[in-house]
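Quick review question:
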């Protein structure tokens, strides 16, 4: 099962809104086949594992291990449970049940109804952690939310800027930390910021220092204050502008009209849920980040503490939990897990 998890990780950033899945086939204690779900719309892990077995006759005497319950419905591909039955695989070991109501328990039931011996719950915590985005999406009907910001040693996320100060980012963290952020962007489906972040920093919100898919750029711009020459409106990657003025689609940029109110974050998350966005990285400013924190709408927070000091400025959000601490050259990275969402 641990090998299934290792294989599944090869699909990071490529399979959403599907889960990451790895499969291993064992005959007489020897692995004779393995596979993983490589990309959304392509063959599932079980199919790739079965196809990798050279002597298909051995399948009738083998055990298939998979970290998530085999599907039982027709989606982009045929049901994996049907294939397992068709190949007469006698035993299947499953890490965890699929939380998707379309599948949940039905794949296991189909296998058992056809005489397959099924064992469920092997390394279940690790299997759920692997697909925590997928589980959050299906159990809480919202994306998995990762907050991210950088702050100085003296606790500021930005300087107080005046009108004469040029637009651009006041860099706090080092270059290696920047590369890591772009790796994170490639792993998530969406990246969310507010109006002020775009106006002050003019970010591109794409993946430049890591290979991978660019996330959907999601901008909360209530009154459409962002100018047309902003980098996020360059139509190089899909962009969603959530506002109160209009619904419109221009090339890769979509304007979605939404009434901003006290419940606006939940309305935004519901919109993203309906678009099958499993996870978002929130890289907004203090106000947006604190809105998520105060409403307990977050699952992880990733906070860089750089080697710079500002003396004064805009204070960083505070999470009253003990983080996991890591060093990235002269930066410190604090990772928080929302204990109320575990």
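Suggested answer, residue by residue:
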């Amino acid at each position: 099962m641990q090998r299934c998890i290792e294989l599944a990780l090869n699909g990071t950033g490529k399979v959403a809104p599907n889960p990451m899945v790895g499969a291993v086939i064992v005959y007489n204690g020897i692995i004779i086949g393995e596979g993983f779900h490589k990309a959304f719309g392509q063959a599932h892990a079980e199919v790739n594992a079965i196809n990798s077995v050279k002597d298909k006759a051995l399948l009738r005497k083998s055990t298939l291990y998979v970290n998530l319950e085999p599907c039982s419905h027709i989606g982009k591909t045929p049901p994996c449970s049907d294939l397992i039955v068709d190949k007469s695989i006698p035993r299947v070991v499953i890490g965890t049940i699929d939380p998707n109501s379309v599948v949940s328990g039905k794949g296991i039931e189909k296998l058992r109804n056809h005489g397959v011996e099924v064992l469920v719950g092997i390394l279940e915590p690790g299997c759920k952690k692997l697909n925590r985005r997928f589980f959050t999406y299906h159990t809480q009907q919202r994306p998995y939310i990762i907050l991210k910001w950088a702050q100085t040693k003296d606790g500021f996320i930005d300087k107080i800027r005046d009108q004469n100060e040029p637009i651009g980012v006041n860099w706090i963290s080092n270059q290696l930390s920047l590369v890591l952020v772009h790796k994170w962007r490639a792993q998530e489906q969406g990246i969310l910021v507010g109006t002020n972040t775009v106006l002050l920093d003019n970010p591109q919100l794409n993946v430049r220092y890591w290979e991978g898919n660019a996330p959907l750029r999601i901008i909360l711009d209530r009154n459409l204050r962002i100018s047309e020459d902003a980098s996020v409106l360059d139509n190089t990657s899909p962009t969603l502008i959530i506002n109160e003025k209009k619904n419109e689609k221009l090339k890769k940029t979509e304007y979605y009209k939404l009434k901003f109110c006290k419940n606006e974050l939940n309305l935004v998350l519901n919109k993203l849920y309906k678009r099958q966005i499993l996870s978002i990285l929130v890289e907004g400013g203090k106000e947006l980040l604190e809105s998520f924190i105060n409403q307990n709408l977050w699952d992880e927070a990733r906070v860089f503490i750089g080697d710079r000091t500002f003396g004064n400025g805009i204070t960083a959000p505070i999470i009253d939990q003990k983080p996991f601490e890591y060093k990235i050259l002269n930066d410190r990275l604090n990772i928080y897990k929302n204990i109320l969402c575990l």
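Why it works: The chain is about 25% helix and 25% strand. The chain has a mean pLDDT of 94.
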